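dude i think i finally got it to work??
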Amino acid sequence: MKYILFLLAVATFPVCLLAQSIQQHTLIDSADKIRVVISTDFPPLDVCMSGCPPDQISDPDDIQSMVRFLLYANEFDVEGLVASSATFANVAKKQNITDILNIYDKVDENLRKHDSLFPTADYLKSVTFQGRSGTYGNTVANNIGAGKDSEASNAIIRIVDKTDSRPVWFCVWGDCSNIAQAVWKVQNTRSADELKAFLSKMRIYQIARQDATIDWLLESFPDLFIIYSKSTFFGIFGGPSDPLGNRAWINKNIRQNHGPLGAVYPLAAMDVDGVKEGDSPSFMHLVSAAHGKSNPEVPTMGSWGGQYIRSGNTNHWVDSLGGSTIAKWKQDYQAEFARRADWMIE
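look at this
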């Protein structure tokens, strides 16, 4: 994990030299990238918030977050895009993710002019997996157990099992059932030592409580690394009075004159008129690490994804100072988001 060694080194730099180092940040070598799996209750692109069929009604904020994530895909080894149960119909449908990847395909060549490490749309489609339907907001008994494997849960096991010393970061935007099912299967088919080794390679950043399997993971595996953001993620929210997160900012910097991917960024989401992106802190925590600004293994340090404290004697990390630990970086991360959006058309 070379990025950790780098972070320990820069921690002793004078502030002025650290700032200079960040300004001179160059794109990281693929061997140093952070391994990432995104699990999202991703809706269809024609999502609405009311007045349409249940398989279209959902929170558009996952589309907002996915647009931002794809503009950072060069920073990561993206090993999985998991479609968990989404919409009011509670259906897992990986075609929804494929649809936005088709739009990404129209801008990725421009992105690769800025960094050749941006993945192709075809590659991202090849690592897109479908979870089980009917799991959002549901119980442990409903969501995990015998006969409840899915394409996604099986893929998660394969990803973690790879011969690779780097941990796998799971950014969980929806329910945690596919990850929990993978853990359940390993627990019930392997030895205790093998389970311990499997869990040691996992890092989970869960946004909110979206089904009961996150409780099961917290209660059953105190040594499993979990950042559980119950409310800190609110810090990224914008709104009409926020000049860095209102409709005007979205239109100027993302939607208008920024190509087809920018154009699909929703202007609003449930309960927020403007930037919501409640799930983005899960990977922005890692963007900070890729930029040499934080250590993802030390949530107390704080990052673009927030600051957290340890829960008791566990390896679980929970809210501390709240959304302000994300909001204070807004000028920086919104400026970079806008700059990367420009790459789609330059």
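The longest strand covers residues 76-83.
im so relieved honestly
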